[in-house]
């Protein structure tokens, strides 16, 4: 018997790895833990090598296990895609997609993207999680992720979706109490609200651009947080000024609830990316979602490389 003759054994192995334990995989597959243990032993006997290291506290892949996992995932994805083509017309996508996004971006732009995709393909179900640790989510078995910010890692493919424009904004009530000249130099002594993570644009200094001119000013934030939505709420209340993304404050700027200050200047745009595992063969529905997301975000974000 060949190692790859029994897809059940491959599914068992992949489920154990992605679930993190035999007991979690047993619940996921609706099988008993002893049954999964027997199937794993049978697979390791066929391989002639241990695939997992197991002790009382944790479980990890051996070197052989890492290699075998990528092959098993690719073969299962191919089998699933072939079965789907037999059952459905290519335009009729179905099945589940596990994805994640950075928190604020996911709760707004990405949620609208997902809704549009499901409306176009009602047979698809999507599970969305939020995390600012993208590689952790990929390791836990997510199919795809959408990030606001940078990520460079050879374990994932990162496809650019565009750039997130960012402006310095304040509330009208704040501007009544603080006289601001139209230059960046006038902003340094004001109360700032800032992001905590440099990966997503946070910093203890702010660099602004206007054409070829650049100005960096140190800031001492009165409030530091992980999310831009909480920053926006504090700016609305008049607590201070902040750099915020265009997609989040566009309606506030139109309504006058927020105002761009030093409007000739802007913060460096952040890249938006869609990422997916480099070694995993993607199901047809996931590849279709990636293409859909790339087109959809062109209506939300500026193309990468645009100068502002």
Automatic annotation (TrEMBL):
Pfam families: HTH_1 (PF00126), LysR_substrate (PF03466). It comes from the Bacteria. Residues 5-62 form the HTH lysR-type domain. InterPro entries: LysR-type_TF_proteobact-type (IPR058163), LysR_HTH_N (IPR000847), LysR_subst-bd (IPR005119), WH-like_DNA-bd_sf (IPR036388), WH_DNA-bd_sf (IPR036390). Coiled coil: none annotated. Keywords: DNA-binding, Transcription, Transcription regulation. PROSITE patterns: HTH_LYSR (PS50931). The keyword Metal-binding does not apply. Transmembrane segments: none annotated. Belongs to the LysR transcriptional regulatory family. This is LysR family transcriptional regulator.
